[in-house]
Design brief:
- This protein is an alpha/beta fold and 236 residues long.
- The protein is built from seven helices and ten strands.
- A seven-stranded parallel sheet has the order 1-10-9-6-2-3-5, covered by helices on one side. Strands 4-8-7 form a three-stranded antiparallel sheet, with no helix packed on it.
- The longest helix has 18 residues, at 8-25.
- Bound molecules: fructose -6-phosphate.
- Fructose -6-phosphate is lined by residues 34-38, 65-66, 125-127, 131-133.
């Protein structure tokens, strides 16, 4: 695992530049995408690159990591809505090429990804409890896309997107599994803010173990961890 500590905007620009380069080399690249507060800056930087004519998404395919369940696509808190709002509606991507796991497709989601050619570049955030996608602590390392019961800490963390009202946060989600994520060819994980510092410290200190889902990434051959100074604040 390579670790880079950078100011937030530099993290976003560097990751967007990696995607711009990848798509220049491989116009039909497959991107694996995360939602959440952290990832917004990556999409802003990609929209800017698109407006500057540095990238076209015409032939790009995307697979999102997760989606709440149940939730309507039209709900502003759904991850479909988030992706449309932050990226897809602002660039030239064909929405037929954008995919989300759902209650209807989750048993075939990994196959769908494999048939498309596999994810070339995966963007990940990390939960304060060390989750990646919605793989909460205790998720088996051999998990594929599955239905998840969200951890209490995740529901509390995400209540900020639901007017601070915990009762409005769905208690379940559909998520790519840890094994699904390990199949991706290149991974960038972004952590910003002090509330991620503990999970990051654990990630650096611990051998892979299901109590800290992100620790599986230590066994992946091509991972870069991007930290802002706050997320890195507990590292020596
Ligand atoms: C979202 C996802 C989650 C988030 C994580 C961090 O698609 O996969 O793992 O990346 O919960 O969320 P934020 O960035 O809101 O702190």
């Amino acid at each position: 695992m390579e670790v880079k500590i950078l100011p937030i905007q530099e993290i976003y620009n560097e990751i967007a530049n990696k995607i711009v380069k990848l798509v220049a080399q491989k116009p039909n690249a497959i991107l694996g995408l995360a939602t959440g507060g952290t990832a917004v800056g990556v999409y802003d930087a990609l929209v800017k690159a698109y407006n500057d004519k540095k990238i076209t998404f015409k032939d790009v395919k995307t697979f999102n990591l997760d989606e709440y369940y149940p939730i309507e696509d039209s709900n502003p808190q759904s991850y479909r809505y988030y992706m449309n709002h932050n990226l897809f509606d602002k660039v030239d991507i064909d929405k037929n090429n954008t995919h989300f796991p759902s209650i209807d497709n989750y048993q075939k989601y990994d196959e769908l990804i494999a048939i498309a050619g596999g994810i070339d570049f995966q963007v990940l955030g990390i939960g304060s409890n060390g989750h990646i996608a919605f793989n909460e602590p205790g998720t088996p390392f051999d998990s594929l896309t599955h239905v998840v019961k969200l951890a209490e800490s995740t529901i509390q963390d995400n209540a900020r997107f639901f007017n601070g009202d915990i009762s409005l946060v769905p208690t379940q989600a559909i998520s790519m599994g840890l094994k699904s994520i390990m199949f991706t060819k290149q991974i960038v994980l972004i952590a910003t803010g002090k509330n991620k510092a503990k999970a990051i410290k654990q990630l650096m200190d611990q051998e892979p173990n299901p109590a800290l889902p992100a620790s599986i990434l230590r066994s992946h051959a091509n991972v870069t961890i991007y930290l802002d100074p706050d997320a890195a604040s507990l590292l020596c």
